[in-house]
């Protein structure tokens, strides 16, 4: 999120050429990770060449879907500046 605001007021009624104002700035950054994972079902099969019989064995069972999330870093910059300006020729 980035937000900047600048307000300026002409004070020539008080003194010709005088103005004043201020600026405010906000910068906000963050890193965010989101992950989903699931282990698949893994099987192995073997075939007996003499009998032709096929045998299956489970190498890894299927897992349910898991979710993860995390916020890595949050950085906030806040700046305030006030000023007066006098310009006259």
Assembly type of the shown chains? single chain
Main pleated sheet: 3 strands, antiparallel
Spans with pLDDT under 50 lasting ≥5 residues? none
Tell me the number of helical segments per DSSP (H or I, 4 or more residues long). 0
Reading the helices and strands in chain order gives EEEEE
Overall pLDDT level = 90
Task: Give the total of beta strands.
Answer: 5
Terminal Cα span? 41 Å
How would you concisely characterize the structure shown here?
It is built from no helices and five strands. With about 90 residues, it is an all-beta fold.
Description:
The chain is an all-beta fold. 0% of the residues lie in helices and 71% in strands. Strands 1-2-5 form a three-stranded antiparallel beta sheet, with no helix packed on it. The chain has a two-stranded antiparallel sheet with strand order 3-4.
Write the layout of secondary structure elements.
Layout: E1 2-10, E2 18-37, E3 42-47, E4 54-60, E5 66-86
Antiparallel strand pairs: 1-2, 2-5, 3-4
Core attributes:
single chain; 89 residues; rod-shaped; mainly beta
